Amino acid sequence: MTSIEDFYTDQGPSEEAVGTLLDQSLHPRGPEMLFDLAAEVGLGAGKRALDVGCGGGRHMFGLARRFGCSAFGVDPVQAQIDRAREAVEREREAEPSVASLVQVARARIEALPFADSSFDLVWARDMLIHVPDLLAGLKECRRVLKEGGHALVFQMFATPWLEPQEARRLWPPLAAVARNADPEFFEESVRQAGFTVVTRDEIGSEWREFAEESGEQKTSRRLLRAARLLRGRDRLAPEIGRAAYEATLADCLWGVYQMIGKLSPRVYALA
Fold it and tell me: What is the CATH number of the domain that holds 65?
């Protein structure tokens, strides 16, 4: 344990020097690296990509626009499918050539409505955390992939820094399956589904740092909102509803926990 004398005694660089060092960027990569990885595994015009858990369709459109591939999006939540279909209609006005490449349907990853060997790429960004039967979902992804195809996965994991009580507050409001955030369970499920890990990339705080440095500062806002939610609990929880309050707080902590190492995402390329 550091003594109070040592703590307040100059033993190295000045506070200003340390601050200058820490103000220098570590050149974090941003989310675009997923698209770069899709290019590396051969996605291009004439190929077919499946975005599982497509949400409002942003990544699905990104794949179609960047690669000229056909992009299919599925999501189990009707509200998300409605948003995606509205986005398709808007895209018909703005970029009809891109809209023509995109289709969406409501479906669960555990029961995909596609024939075997239908796709060259399965894209699963930040959604497998929600899947109750992870192995069944991964097996379906393997089933619909063509021979030589790949799955690109962005998955969030808990680290030893995440305390059990923090985990209990975090996972339920976000509809997250706790065991899916265990890297050993996840990789064993990947193996049992018939996949091979081609690349495994620990992202840590990189994407969050990138957003801060590029001006978006999303996590800074989430930290401020988390502080307000905690300090104003008695007023805010009744005003927005208990469930919404807990979900909003967990969503804010999601980014903050990545920044301080309690959560750490990985990117996988699976074959």
Answer: 3.40.50.150
